[in-house]
Amino acid sequence: MKLVKSDFFKNASLLFSGSLIAQGIGFGALYFLGRMYSPEDFGEVETLMKIAGVFIAIAGLRYEMAIVVEEDNHNASDLLRLSLFINAVISFLLLIVIGIFQIPIAHFFKLQNQQLLLFLPLIIWLTSSTESIVLWRNRTKSYPKISTNRIIFSLSGTTYKLIHPLMQWMGNGLFQGQLLGQGIALIHMVYQLPFKIFSTTKHQLIILAKTYRKFPYFSSPAALLNILATSMPVFIIASFDGQEATGYFSNAYKLTYLPMSMLSLALGQVFFERIARLRNNKEEAGSMAHQLINTLYVIGIVPVLVLWVWGDQIAPLILGEQWEETGIYIQIIILFYFTMFLTSSFSSAFETYQKLPFQLSYNFLFLISTFTALYLGYTIGGSTRIALTWFAITGIVLRLAILNYFFVLFGKNMFVKTIFAVLITGGLGYLGFTIRDLIS
Fold first, then answer.
1. CA of 329: how far to CAs of 67, 134, 371, 425, 434, in Å?
2. pTM attached to this predicted model
């Protein structure tokens, strides 16, 4: 295939190799972390990081997304500066808000260590700043730098998480490790930038802010709605069922979507850079997108089926006996995360083809639909398992719909192929459960 032979695959491989090593470190440590920390510890950190993630998505008002799209290198550098400045302002304002509302926020999410909320603005500033610079590095095709950064983040954070309980230090080591890893990652990403971050003028930043005003107007609210929707299970579970159940879900996420998302992110970053240059050539863009979706499906289908059929047995083997409920959650949500894996690489089409108002509308629909599914799953179904089932079904339908929309933008019709893929996946799943019953 052209995609495999091109530098697209080589660049994506560079990014994925870093992600793979980083994930290998995380997975290897998870065997020990699952036995060193309680589900409540994992749940607390997951809740805090999801809250942070909501603000990270909009900390730069999405001006950072224009860094890759902008054709002029000097303007792209100024867009980076603009996003970093806005991020610093928003993080500071958030610190004031959290200081005022710390107790009610902790009560709503059933957090035991409410003082950790005060560190969220720091996490947001570190992460958003790193991601903005990553996008600039992506523009310049500095893929080895980006790949190395992921390894450094994972290695430094994971090392601390493992050492913390052994040294009997105070506080939640999982959260502290996350904070340390993100700080080191930012230092590494800033190192040897080929320009001075503060070397610009107020006038130039204002001009660029006006030029790309659609990003804060449309892309920023859309990103906020999207992260709220994908984080909704954590927020609802924490509110209805507490931090233990949130911890079970947290590690179900780590064993399912997180490893898939690393590959999807690697491919998506390279695809974003490439599709931004090919947006006026639908034939080539459509061909590249078609080859990419085939590659993603082939790569993902086997591990997805294994987790769907045997997830309840795999989770306790990896994490320990206390994590059996995590395995059940994996079986419930794995197909939804598979559809997220298939669609995430193409989400840059919204920015590339200037479909930001549509992105906003879709993400609003996704948020309302998934919230309703989870809420009714608890109030009517009465359990986390039922809530996650309704959430997964709703999410699958909406994700497959947006995947087909992306391909319309690329000039391809994917409807028949989508139906065929659903039937194939369902048939393979049925075969897997049949084999499991025969074995047992």
1. 38, 33, 18, 19, 20
2. 0.82
